[in-house]
Design brief:
Helix content is 29%, strand content 24%. With 493 residues, it is of the alpha+beta class. It folds into two domains: 257 residues, Glutamine Phosphoribosylpyrophosphate, subunit 1, domain 1 (4-Layer Sandwich); 205 residues, 3-Layer(aba) Sandwich (Rossmann fold). The strands form five sheets. The protein has an eight-stranded mixed beta sheet. Strands 6-7-8-9-13-14 form a six-stranded antiparallel beta sheet, with helices on one face. It has a four-stranded parallel beta sheet with strand order 17-20-21-22, with helices on both faces. The radius of gyration is 23 Å and the shape is globular.
């Protein structure tokens, strides 16, 4: 393998300015048969940067040798110079952007992961989280496997390597039939680009086409940036095999209703993406409109909490007929802060990213609209900022239901006792953040915004466990987890 890897594994100290924000750990991209495979992959990763900002990596194959570049930091910091792209030779490539929910942020955990197997090279990139990854890893290590990383994706590499099947694609399918949880995978072999989606379709994956060559990506926005044509969504429980012969579809799991993650529509996906046939921007506007119908307020203006609350606030304002004002201005150029400030400076950190537009809110009764409420820490600072800017009343509206349960499928949520809605009633939450009133979109309301009549308890259409506690897959790893994790599960039950 020809590889260019940095030896540094030191994570810089950062000031977290988004402590009340949900995060997802990655986005994936792959292309087969294009002479500019690595450059196109880098562009695709740029479009998926919102899905992970800690690290990025690309693996390419030139018909003889695999080439690997993995870096800590943003895509633009690592893959903008020509020399890096020129080292990634070949007409097939896969890439990954990462935000870690399993495994610390060090270079050995950066994806795609690569291994030389008996049948040839194998690279894989993963979006999601395996709920039996620790269990499988424990068994593999007990049987003599040597793990080089702490990410659950490495389990997939070992399972492929140990499969007794003859063909590589059969070994891949044999491996993913053993994993549980949420996953969208792209893999690269000597002859094929492979995509796979978990049996419930929790994590997104799309198939595209550019100049007759096929592409796999987490979101359609990655197709748009390179001028590719959207072909279709990869289906839940489907493996897509792309080779010189074209595209082959293999069903590896029994058919069952899809349950995509509702947070793709609330927060994670880019607004211009289309996820499972639904335009994300339109969904968020409808959530805001539903919220306006469910929880109106006597106010003068509607103000979004940027940037994630903007579409919902637009929908809210249009539905209730109130003016829409940018009462909070976001600074997009803050970046990362590699210093350890004093506590007094840290407490002012929210002002680095958000500042009040006093002219829009002073003397007015405002409706603040945000997409979700997690810990509530940032909401406290935003409300205080609006008060100091002269807002007479602040009515906080959240365009999703209360988050009462942690996630185990790739969303970096706090443990249950750190979730504000799990430890406070509605009045307690209102008092904590300091608003004059507080309301959330109901669970049926969010389903209506998605085009459903409401949530069917017998067969939910989405993965919505953060609101309901209804986990759609086994949580096997909790059985071998720490006592603290076991207590969380007991609370969730």
């Amino acid at each position: 393998m020809a590889a260019s890897l940095e030896n540094r594994q030191i994570r810089p100290i950062e000031v977290d300015l988004d402590g009340d924000t949900l995060r997802e750990e990655c986005g994936v991209f792959g292309i087969f048969g294009h002479p500019d495979a690595a450059a196109i992959t880098a562009l695709g990763l740029h479009a998926l940067q919102h899905r992970g900002q800690e690290a990025a990596g690309i693996v390419s194959f030139d018909g003889r040798v695999f080439h690997l570049e993995r870096k800590l930091g943003l895509v633009g910091d690592s893959f903008s110079d020509r020399s890096t792209i020129e080292r990634l030779e070949g007409s097939a490539a896969i890439g990954h952007v990462r935000y870690s929910t399993t495994g610390e942020t060090v270079l050995r955990n950066v994806q795609p992961l690569f291994a030389e197997l008996e049948s040839g090279g194998f690279a894989v990139a993963h979006n999601g989280n395996l709920t039996n990854g620790l269990t499988l890893r424990r068994n593999l290590v007990r049987e003599g496997a040597l793990c080089q990383s702490t990410t659950d994706t490495e389990v997939i590499v070992h399972l492929v390597a140990r499969s007794r099947k003859a063909r590589m694609i059969d070994r891949f399918i044999d491996a993913i039939r053993q994993i549980e949880g949420a996953f969208s995978l792209v893999a690269l072999t000597n002859k094929k680009l492979i995509g796979a989606r978990d049996p419930l379709g929790i994590r997104p994956l799309v198939l595209g086409e550019l100049d007759g060559r096929y592409i796999l990506a987490s979101e359609t926005c990655a197709l748009d940036i390179i001028g590719a044509r959207f072909v279709r969504d990869v289906q839940n429980g489907e493996v897509v095999v792309i080779s010189e012969e074209g595209v082959e579809s293999i069903r590896y799991a029994l058919p069952q209703p899809m349950r995509p993650c509702i947070f793709e529509y609330i927060y994670f996906a880019r607004p211009d993406s289309v996820v499972n046939g639904r335009n994300v921007y339109d969904c968020r506007k409808r959530m805001g409109a539903e919220l306006a119908r469910e929880a109106p307020a006597d106010a003068d203006v509607v103000v979004p909490v940027p940037d994630s609350g903007v579409p919902a606030a637009l929908g809210y304002a249009q539905e209730c007929g109130l003016p829409y004002e940018l009462g909070i201005i976001r600074n997009h150029y803050v970046g990362r802060t590699f210093i350890q400030p004093s506590q007094s400076v840290r407490e002012l950190g929210v002002r680095l990213k958000h500042s009040a537009n006093r002219a829009a809110v002073s003397g007015k009764r405002i409706i603040l609209v945000d997409d979700s409420l997690v810990r509530g820490t940032t909401s406290v600072k935003i409300v205080r900022m609006m008060r100091e800017a002269g807002a007479r009343e602040i009515h906080f509206r959240i365009a999703s239901p209360p988050i009462t349960h942690p996630d185990f499928y790739g969303i970096d949520t706090p443990e249950r006792d750190k979730l504000l809605a799990a430890t406070h009633d509605l009045e307690g939450m209102r008092a904590y953040i300091g608003a004059d009133s507080l309301a959330f979109l109901s669970i049926d309301g969010i389903y209506r915004a998605m085009g459903c009549e409401g949530r069917d308890p017998a067969r939910p259409q989405f993965t919505d466990h953060c609101f309901t506690g209804d986990y759609p897959t086994p949580l096997t790893d909790l059985e071998i987890a720490t006592p603290r994790r076991l207590a969380i599960l007991a609370e969730a039950d």
